Amino acid sequence: MRYISIEKTKPGMILGKEVFDDEGRILLSVNTKLTKEYITRLSIRGYQGVYIEDELSRGIKIDEVISVELRNRGAQAVKDGNIDDLKTIAKDIVSQLLDKDKSISIDIQDLRTYDNYTYKHSVNVAVISTIIGIYLSYDEESLYELCLAALMHDIGKTKIDPAIINKPARLTMAEYRLVQEHARYSYDILDQNWLMPARTKQGVLHHHENEDGTGYPDRLVGDEIPSYAKIIHVADVYDALTSKRPYKKPYALSEAIEYLMGGSNVLFDRKAVEAFLEAVPVYAKGIEVTMTNGEKALVVANSSNPLRPIVRLISNGKDIDLNNDKDYISVTIAPHTVVENDFTSVYEKFECD
Ligand SMILES: [Fe+2]
């Protein structure tokens, strides 16, 4: 199976994974043959891409890190603001992730549309944060507290005018200040709940603090920032960067990873970024890449060197281990093409997401 952007889909292609609508219902099932009409509808609804199954991608398997059912349940509970459900969902996310028998790798590409962004974003941030916690050897109770904080980090946005939250353009400074209040609002909502772990509340309150003290609400520096908040900050920014929004294109994974590495010790905690890098491949399985010799290829599997995966040439279907193949010793994956986004303005905007 391989990932293909919606612009590159053609009638006759076979879906390798189902496509869900915003309510979690199956829109198109696995093995559906795409038609011109389906492609147009997916495009109008804002889907960025789909997984297809074809001869070239035979044998490439891409696993979900948590079940689609749990993901949808999580998004619904965030939407409803149902804290009791969210507690159960946090337990289920931790237990599904701990059940994985091998190291977890987030290969799946984002198939979301940008409707209902906040709800799905919160579930993604919870999954990524929990995986970071697993790589940092957190015990199960801490993973639960962290996951719960990540699910609810933006719950306070419900107290802000939706016209500002969903504004498809850059915010004014006054609007930006209003949006920043969401961290305190989230804390207040959690604080009203009985038996909410103190570390979960602190994780939520400080998820926009930067290591250098330039964040909010309290401009905390380095070790003053609670560890759950540091992890959620990394997961939050990564997911915001790689998501398609009305005002920006999604960043390639490699670009988002570069951004996190560049912000290490300045915006982000270095240990949280390093743990994150263990779980997220620079080149995910099933994506198409261009190499420095001009050849195009699919990523088949990752190797010990994250920058040199095993790839399959699109021209002849031959697998090349970039880490070991002598003929490809001087060939690398070409740097991503520069997208029109400018990091500064996008960062400012997604800080509000
Ligand atoms: Fe936030």
TrEMBL record:
Classification via SMART domains: HDc (SM00471)
Domain HD-GYP, by residue range, is 96-292
Matches recorded under CDD domains: HDc (cd00077)
Task: List the Gene3D superfamilies hit by this protein, alphabetically.
Answer: Hypothetical protein af1432
What InterPro entries does the entry give?
HD/PDEase_dom (IPR003607), HD_GYP_dom (IPR037522)
Signal peptide range in chain numbering: none
Q: Which domain of life is it from?
A: Bacteria
Membrane-crossing residue ranges in chain numbering: none
Q: Name one Pfam family in it.
A: HD_5
Specify the protein name: HD-GYP domain-containing protein
Look up and give the organism this protein is from: Butyribacter intestini
